[in-house]
Amino acid sequence: MVVDDHRLLAEALASALKLRGHRVLAAAAPAAGAAELVITRAPEVCLLGTATPAEPGMFDPVVRIKRERPQVAVLVLGPVPSPRGIAAAFAAGASGYVRHDERIEGVERAIMKARAGEAAVAPQLLQGAFSELLNPAAQPDDEGQRLLQMLTPREVEVLVRVADGEDTRLIAAGMGIAPSTARTHVQRVLMKLGVGSRLEAAALAARTGLLDRAGPVGSSVPDGEP
């Protein structure tokens, strides 16, 4: 059975499988009710399409299918997934993950593996997933992390103290540096963050979650000043 919100994709894949000798019970494109449809028809293998594999709750239909029809092997059809997407699919009970742009031969191999009770996922997908897990890339939309990487550990501590309302004298005393050095650090922080005042810097740090990532103050390496 092929179930996908895109009817054209579902019907094209079903037709291709039929031409290769597979019996396809149904090709459907329900916006909802996918689990109900699969549970009712109880195919050997279900190809279940998804557009956002990392979205919370996306694999709830898989969970229900496996709970009520554990003999049905569910293959997820989706875009190039993140490691989290692959993990979520298998955690929900899927037998495999097949990319939307896979050749029909690859889909057929996945079906054969799923029917045999094997995990069906392309080696290159697993390789990419492990590579990303071992060497995670910075998230482009994580502004707090991006800003944090622009600052030195010393400047991060200065920013935390600024957000706590400390003036130059208190910053200098707390960090064991001269007031002139503290003032220089503050100016560098403002320049790197692209803001014009301490208040703006504190607000930006709080809004982006930078303060939550920074940790407690007092942990940076001293400047070597008396």
From TrEMBL:
Return the PROSITE patterns for the record.
Answer: HTH_LUXR_2, RESPONSE_REGULATORY
UniProt cross-references to InterPro entries, sorted A to Z: CheY-like_superfamily, Sig_transdc_resp-reg_C-effctor, Sig_transdc_resp-reg_receiver, Tscrpt_reg_LuxR_C
Database matches in SMART domains: HTH_LUXR
Please, one GO biological process term?
A: regulation of DNA-templated transcription
GO function terms (MF aspect): DNA binding
TM region(s), chain numbering: none
Annotated HTH luxR-type domain ranges read 144-209
Domain Response regulatory positions: 1-115
Any idea which UniProt keywords this protein has?
Answer: DNA-binding, Transcription, Transcription regulation
Q: Which PANTHER family match?
A: DNA-BINDING TRANSCRIPTIONAL ACTIVATOR DEVR_DOSR
Name-wise, this protein is Transcriptional regulator
Organism, as annotated? Streptomyces curacoi
